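User: Once you have settled down, look closely at the record that follows, taking as long as you need, and be ready to discuss the fold:
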Amino acid sequence: MKLTGGGRTQFDGIPNKRVRSSYSDMLIAHSTLPGYTSNRDIYRGTWFVQAICKIFMEHAHDTDVEDMLKMVN
C-alpha cells in the first residue's frame, strides 16, 4: 500500500477511493474541563494517562472501552 497523489491509496497497482475517517471510529477523551490544566508527573505523564494505561493493561482482555473509561473516571 502506498499513498499516491490526490490522497488516493494504491494496493497492488490498483487505485482505490480515498478512505475517509468519520467521527464514529474515533475516541476523544479529555483529562479536564476547558480552561483547566491536568496534574502531571515529569517522568510518568499526567495522572489521566497513567490511569488509562493502568486500566487498559489490566482490563482490556475482558472489558469494553466504555466501561474501562468509566473505571478511569
User: Anything to note?
Assistant: The chain has a mean pLDDT of 80. The longest helix spans residues 47-59. DSSP finds two helices and five strands in the chain. Strands lie at 2-4, 8-11, 14-16, 40-41, 45-46.
